[in-house]
Design a protein that fits this description.
Layout (H helix, E strand, L loop, with lengths): L1 H9 L3 H15 L7 E5 L2 E5 L5 E6 L5 H16 L15 E3 L2 E7 L10 H12 L18 H7 L4 H19 L8 E3 L8 E3 L5 E3 L6 E3 L2 H12 L6 H11 L9 H17 L6 H14 L12
Helix pairs in contact: 4-8, 6-9, 7-9, 9-10
C-alpha cells in the first residue's frame, strides 16, 4: 500500500487531479463540465461551473484521515457559530475515488475586498479561545509529517535532496529543544491571511482545515511572523494590526528562530512538489532553496 500511495503522489499533476474530480462529480451527480482548477498544492481545488461547489482532491489515500478530520472540524466550528467553510451536507463525505478522499464544499462568494491582517489576528484569538469538544479527536501539530514523503518523491537535483535532508535533521534537533509556555488548544495549523475569505456580505470566513490540530497557539502565530520579519510580505502597519488584534508578537519569543526555520523549510518543500507544473513554479523553488542555503541572506521569495 505504501508503494501504491507513493506512486499516486508521484503522478499527482493537474491532469491527474482533474480525472479524479470528474469521476467524483459523476459519482454524486454533479456536472463537472467547465470546472476550473484554482489551486494545486497538497490538494487540488476545483470550482464547478454548474453549481456553487468547490471540489477538494488530496494527493492520495494517506489523506483519508485528514479529510475526515476536515469534515468534522467544519461541522464543529459551524455549530459554534464560528464563520467557516462549510461542507455540502447532502453528499457522501469524503468520497474515495482511485485512492483519493474527495470532499465537496459550498462555494464562498467573495466580496470586493480581501481579509486584513487585523482580521486574521482577531480570528485566531477567537479560535484559540474555544474548547475542543469531547469526541473530536485532533492530532498534535507535526511540522515534519509530510517532509519525508515530499523528499522521497521530489523531482529536484540530488544535491538539493542531500542539503534538505541535512537541514531536516538539524531542525528536528532544534524542535526537540523548544519549550512552550502557553496551554494547548485548537490550532488552525496553516494560519496565513489567504486562508481567510471575505464573502459578498462582508463576513470573514476561515477555510482549509487540513492541518487543524490540538497544540500550542505559537504554531499559528509563526506564519505571519515569519512572513513579516523574514520575508517582508507585510508592511509594518499590517503586521502591527495583526499583533494588536491578537495581543502578541511571536518575534519576541525565544523559540521564534526555530519556528522560522521550520516555516521556511515547509514553504520550500511544499512548493517543491510542483516543480514539473511550469517554469514559474520551478524558478520560485530555486529561489527558495537558494535562500535556505544562506540563512543570513535577505529573502526575495514571492507569495504563492
Amino acid at each position: 500500500m505504501a508503494v501504491d500511495a507513493a506512486r499516486s503522489e508521484e503522478g499527482f499533476t493537474s491532469a491527474a487531479a482533474t480525472r479524479v474530480m470528474v469521476a467524483a462529480c459523476r459519482a454524486v451527480g454533479l456536472d463537472d463540465r467547465d470546472a476550473e482548477l484554482i489551486r494545486l498544492g497538497e490538494n487540488a481545488l476545483f470550482r464547478l461551473a454548474s453549481a456553487p461547489v468547490i471540489v477538494r482532491v488530496p494527493r492520495g489515500r494517506e489523506w483519508l484521515d485528514t479529510a475526515r478530520k476536515e469534515v468534522a472540524v467544519s461541522r464543529w466550528l459551524e455549530g459554534e457559530g464560528f464563520p467557516v467553510a462549510r461542507i455540502v451536507e447532502d453528499l457522501e463525505q469524503p468520497l474515495v475515488i482511485d485512492g483519493h478522499p474527495v470532499t465537496f464544499w459550498h462555494l464562498i462568494v467573495e466580496g470586493e475586498r480581501k481579509a486584513t491582517y487585523g482580521e486574521l489576528g482577531a480570528t485566531l484569538r477567537e479560535l484559540h479561545s474555544l474548547r475542543v469538544p469531547d469526541g473530536l479527536e485532533l492530532p498534535l501539530f507535526d511540522p515534519f509529517d509530510k517532509q519525508q514523503r515530499r523528499l522521497d518523491l521530489a523531482v529536484i537535483p540530488e544535491d538539493d535532496k542531500v542539503f534538505l535532508r541535512k537541514r531536516w535533521r538539524e531542525l528536528r534537533d532544534k524542535y526537540a529543544e523548544l519549550r512552550f509556555e502557553t496551554p494547548k488548544g485548537p490550532v488552525h495549523g496553516d494560519a496565513h491571511v489567504q486562508n481567510l475569505m471575505v464573502d459578498d456580505q462582508g463576513q470573514v470566513i476561515l477555510i482549509d482545515f487540513e492541518a487543524f490540530c490540538f497544540d500550542h497557539p505559537e504554531w499559528d502565530l509563526m506564519v505571519t511572523a515569519v512572513e513579516h520579519h523574514s520575508l517582508g510580505w507585510q508592511t509594518d502597519a499590517q503586521y502591527a494590526d495583526f499583533v494588536a488584534a491578537y495581543g502578541r508578537d511571536l518575534y519576541d519569543w525565544p523559540g521564534y528562530e526555530t519556528l522560522r526555520g521550520l516555516q521556511e523549510f515547509g514553504m520550500t518543500t511544499w512548493l517543491m512538489q510542483n516543480v514539473r507544473e511550469d517554469e514559474k513554479t520551478a524558478a520560485e523553488y530555486r529561489r527558495r532553496i537558494a535562500g535556505l542555503r544562506n540563512d543570513d541572506a535577505p529573502r526575495d521569495w514571492r507569495p504563492w
